[in-house]
Amino acid sequence: MAGAGWTAPGVAETEAARPQRPRSVRAREKVLEATDALLTEGGLPAATIDAISVRSGVSKATIYKHWPSRTAVAAEAFGQRMSAALPLPDTGSAHGDFSTQARLVSEFYGSPAGAVFAQLLAASVTDPDAAVFFRAFFLAGRRRAIGELWQRALDRGEVDPDIDVEVAQDVLFGPLVFRLLSGHAPLTPELADQIADAALHGLLSDTARDR
Length: 211
Known about the structure:
- With 211 residues, the protein is mostly helical.
- It folds into two domains: 16-70, Homeodomain-like (Arc Repressor Mutant, subunit A, Orthogonal Bundle), CATH 1.10.10.60; 80-209, Tetracycline Repressor, domain 2.
- It is built from ten helices and no strands.
- Helix 1 (22-46) crosses helix 2 (49-56), helix 4 (70-85) packs parallel to helix 7 and helix 6 crosses helix 7.
C-alpha cells in the first residue's frame, strides 16, 4: 500500500531525478543498499517495508515518502544491480555484440537474480505504481543500453535500418524472458546463441550477411 505522502511520478520524474538534500540522498542510498541485500538473501518476499526499515535504519514514513510500495523500492534497487552486472560488449560486429549480450542476459536470468526479476515482473502486473519504477529503473536502462548496440550496428551498415530498434530488442531478448517465466526450456549459453542466431539471421543487412 502506498504511503500517504507519495505522489505518483512520471517515468522521467521520479524522486531519484529531483534535487534533494544530502541527508535525503543518503537515506535513499541506505534504503536501496538494504533492499538489494534483502533481495539477494530471500528474493522479493524478504524485502518488506518493515525489513527494509530495520536493515537500513530509515523510518517507514521516510521510505513511503520516496516510494509507493516495497515492489517499487525493489525495482529501483534491482535495476541498479543489473546495470552493473551486464556491461555492454564491444566485439566489433553486430553478431558478436548481440550474441555476447544474449549470453550475458541468459546467464543473469539463469542465476538467483533471475528469480527476483520474475517476482518483480509478476508483482508489477498488479501494482501499477510499482510498474512505473520497474519500467524506469529496470527496463528503460536495459533498453537504452541495447539501443547503443543497435546504433553501432547501424553505423557499420550491419542491420536493416527499416527495423525499429524496439522491435529488434523484443525479438532478440523477449525469448529469454519467456523461457525464464515459462520454464519450458533451460537458459544455457548454447541456447542463447541459438536464439541470437535465429533473430540476427533476419536482422542483418545483406552486406553483413554475405561477410
